[in-house]
Each structure stands twice: as structure tokens, then as C-alpha cells.
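Handout, section 4.2: multi-component inputs.
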Amino acid sequence: AQTVTQSQPEMSVQEAETVTLSCTYDTSESNYYLFWYKQPPSRQMILVIRQEAYKQQNATENRFSVNFQKAAKSFSLKISDSQLGDTAMYFCAFISGNTGKLIFGQGTTLQVKP
Amino acid sequence: DSGVTQTPKHLITATGQRVTLRCSPRSGDLSVYWYQQSLDQGLQFLIQYYNGEERAKGNILERFSAQQFPDLHSELNLSSLELGDSALYFCASSVGLKGYNEQFFGPGTRLTVL
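Output:
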């Protein structure tokens, strides 16, 4: 069975600084996708970034980038130039290419301080 | 706005009761997913429907059932409610049923069982 682990329940960062959120996963599959979702206080689930396992290049979306280490089964999220609006809970998620079942980590609460 | 709608936004009911949560997917999406977010269980996948047929099942209790109608909207029925069923229930939708299809989340229904 696939599992996703986020070992940092809470983190904080100063505005304009850089922060990295950690995620590890376990799977025996070769065809899968990894995601980071943001859940602000409104509780809406917002897709931040997506990584296809078959791609070696790390995904980037503006200030958000990932460090995908396939062999180590690690998928960290880097947020550069942190903004107050980045304050939220962040979920790492895994999905097999053959199913529609998203598997989420426990979440990391990020607080951006002014 | 993801384009996925869920009603009601909030629901307060008593133990032993039955409730129905409704979800309308984005226009053109054939897959609907239900997820439960609770303090003790985190975010977990419940069930997936594709074009009216059940396609995948997760940790969904026998007291819970779902269906997808010909117009593609879906309903999640929760019966014999217990205090532990209090949670935020998300619906998501995607075009296809495989993992590479991005899932768009609705705003959620907050269920409180007293």
C-alpha cells in the first residue's frame, strides 16, 4: 500500500524568506504523480504544484518549486520569497497513474510571519 | 473558484440521523470523488464514480453510500451518524478516471454531529 509522510506538523518562516516542506512516500509503482496542495483558513483545497514521476526535471510554478528525489522517494516543496498569503496547511499527495485515489500526508501548517 | 459546487456548506445534525451531501462537478468532468477530512483521520479518500459507475473505494464505512446520477452530480449519504463522523467532506471532479487527470476540489461541506 502506498503511504505519504510529512514529518513537520508545523513550520514558520519570515516574510520574504525561503522555506522547505518535507515529504516522503512509499510505493512499488513506477507510474505515479505527486502533488502539493494548499489549504488556507477558508478550507479550500488548492493545487500548488504537480510532478510526474517519469519526469526527471523538478517542477516549478512561480515561487514554488519541488525537489523530487525518486530513488529516495522524497518530494519536498520550496517556497521562495514567502508571502503572508502563503500561510496555510500544505498537503503532500500521491496518486497512482492507474487509479483516481489521492493519498494525502498528514499536512504541515505553515505560518508566514511579518 | 474550482467550478465544483457542494451543498450544503454546513450541516448540523444529531447522532443516529441520516444526511445527504450533494456535489455538482465541473462542466465536462465525468469523474467524481469524495474525501473526508477529520482531525483524527486526516484527509482520506472515500469513493470514486466515473460516468455513473463506482470505480474505486477507499476507507468508506458501510453506513455511508454514494451514487452518481445521469446528469453527473453525485450524492453522499451518511446514515446512523456518530459523533466521529463530524468532518469536512470534500467532493472533487476530473475529466477522466486515471491519476494523470487533475482533480478539482469543491469548497466542502462541514458536518457537525451533536
